[in-house]
Design a protein that fits this description.
alpha/beta; nine-stranded mixed β-sheet; 13 strands; 33% helix
């Protein structure tokens, strides 16, 4: 069963407070999301494998380490996932970036894939799927299914805030995927929004309604 990791680093929790606040404007919200994303990426990538190497310093030769092998792939779910990508790229500029677009069918209420463009050689990459709000889990589950269908097997899911319903859905559909979140909230309201949550992440990132 994939594990749920709540990233409780003080800086993450501090910045998440202001991301949640309804009076935080678009510019500040966007900057805070980028900052938290970078801090979360630092925690999520702590188990990347290393290999020994040597480097010549100004005064000698050092025995040191570099990250082994596979290049990371970031796959944000459009559109809100885009707000988290640049923060991660500030930390890992060589990461490749794909995109998955999903919408909810008004009749079935199921997510429908309308766009998917991923880096080559997904089967060789460590993949982080990015979906800021893990609410019902439908979109996240569909995104994970899409990257698996294109060869990915080493996958993590990254979100800002999760609801128990979404966590349960992802764990049932994708028991091999670990979930990383800054907070686990109490649940969903009648409209499917996370409570207390932070509202609609996409609207707050891009200044829309």
């Amino acid at each position: 069963m994939g594990r749920l990791h709540i990233l409780d680093h003080p800086l993450i929790q501090h910045k998440l407070t202001y991301i949640r606040a309804k009076d935080t404007g678009t510019k500040e919200f966007r900057a805070l999301v980028e900052e938290v994303s970078m801090l979360m990426a630092y925690e999520i990538t702590r188990d990347l494998p290393l290999v020994e190497t040597t480097v010549e310093t100004p005064v000698g030769v050092a025995q040191t380490k570099v990250i082994e092998g596979r290049t990371l792939a970031l796959v944000p779910v459009l559109r809100a996932g885009l707000g988290m990508v640049h923060g991660i790229l500030n930390l890992i500029p060589n990461a490749k970036v794909g995109h998955i677009g999903l919408y909810r069918d008004p009749d079935t209420l199921q997510p429908v894939e309308y766009y998917c463009k991923l880096p080559q050689y997904m089967e060789e990459r460590d993949v982080i799927v990015i979906d800021p709000m893990l609410a019902t889990g439908g979109s996240a589950s569909a995104a994970l299914r899409a990257v698996k269908a294109r060869g990915a097997s080493s996958i993590k899911l990254m979100c800002l805030v999760a609801a128990p319903e979404g966590v349960a859905r992802v764990q049932a559909d994708h028991p091999d995927v670990d979930i990383y979140a800054a907070a686990l909230d109490q649940g969903l309201n009648d409209h499917g929004y996370i409570v207390p949550g932070l509202g609609d992440a996409g609207d707050r990132l891009f200044g829309t309604r």
